[in-house]
Write a structure and sequence with these properties.
single chain; Rossmann fold; disordered N terminus; six-stranded mixed β-sheet; 34% helix; 11 helices; alpha/beta; seven-stranded mixed β-sheet
Amino acid sequence: MASPRNPNSERPGTTRRTAVGLILGAPLLGACSGVQQTLSSFSNPVGGSQPAPAGPPQEPLAVGSGQVKVGLLLPLSAAGNAGVAAQSMKNAAEMALAEFQNPNVQLLIKDDAGTPQGAQQGTQQALDEGAEIILGPLFAVSVPAAAQLTRTRGVSMIAFSTDSSVAGRGVYLLSFLPESDVNRIIEYSASTGKRSYAALLPENAYGNVVEVAFKQAVGRRNGRIAAFEKYGADRAGAARTLAQALGQADALFLADDGDAVVGIADALTAAGANLKNIQLLGTGLWDNPRVFASPALQGGLYAAPDPAGFRSFAGRYRTKFGGEPVRTATLAYDAVALVAALARTQGGQRFSPEVLTNPSGFAGIDGLFRFRTDGTNERGLAVMRVGSGGGQPVAGSPKSFGA
C-alpha cells in the first residue's frame, strides 16, 4: 500500500530529562509530550511504497548489558531514505537506553535490509539469542514474515509500520495511524457544534483507511455526511462536484499530504467554494510549510501530537549525534523506553498482552498512546490551527485516556 510522502526531521529543542516514571499505573516513558505528525508513506514510513534494495549485511550488534534481551529490527543496510531512517532510529534507541539510567535491558540490533527475508532472519537470530520481545520491523511487508516466528514462540512484537492491516494477535503497532487523527479532529469539531460534514479524500490506500475512520467517527457523534467525494488524477472534477454541495455542510474534511491538500483547496476555490464560510478539518499530514503558506487553508484545524516533545527530543539528539533525527526516530526511542520501563516494573509478565494493552496507556515523546487488543494503537493528540507562522494549538493533548 502506498500513499503520502515523507516529511522527516523537525526543529531541535534543548530540554533534557530522564526517561521513566509512572503515570496512571502505567510506565511514563518521558516527560516530553508530542511532536509534529508526519505519516510518511502509508506502508513505508520513510517514503515510497516498497523497501529499498538491500546493501551488504551488517555485523551483529548488542547494546547494553542487562538481563532482559530485546530484539530490534531495522533496515540498516537498505539504500536511500530507508537506511538513513534506520540509522537515526538506531541512534534514538541507544539514546533511550542511555537516558533511562541503568535499564536491565540488552538490545540485540539486527539488520533486516528492508526485506521480508531479512526480517525473518533477524527475528530468528534475536529469538535464538534469547529476545523476549521484538521491536520492528519498519516496513509493513516485513511484519508478517517476522510475526510467523514470534507467534510460534509466544513472543510479542512492537512494529513501526503505519499499515494497520498487519496488526493482530501479538503484533502491536507503535506508529502514527491515520485513524487517531480522524477520530480526534471529528470528536473535537463535534464538541464545538459541528454536525454536518463534507469530505474530499484521495482515491488511494491512505484515503480508503481515512474514509472508513471518518464515516465511523461521524456516526459515533450522530453527525451527518452531507457530501462525499474521492479524487484520482481529476482533482478539479471532484472539487467541482463537491463545491456544489458545500452549502449543506458546516465542516469540510480534507485528508492528504501538504502539497496535495493545497492543490485541492485551490481547486475548490476555483470551483466557486468559499472556504472562509466553512470549518476546514484535516489530519497530521497538514503539518507542512505549504499548508501554512496557503491563504485558502488559514484557520483550518488538524489533529497532531503537540510539537514540544519532538523539539526537545531533536535537541537532545542533535547534541548527542551532531545531526537531526528523522521523524520516525521517536518511535524507536519510545519503544525502547517502554520495554525498559516494563522490564523494571512488571516482573515476569512484562511483555504479556495484558501488560502491553493496559487501558491507561503510556506516555512518550509523542504524547499518550495505548495499544488496542487488535494490535493497533490510539494516541492522545492535540488540535492545531493553521496559521501563516505554523500550527498553533487550540486544544491540548489529553492528560489521560477516558474510561
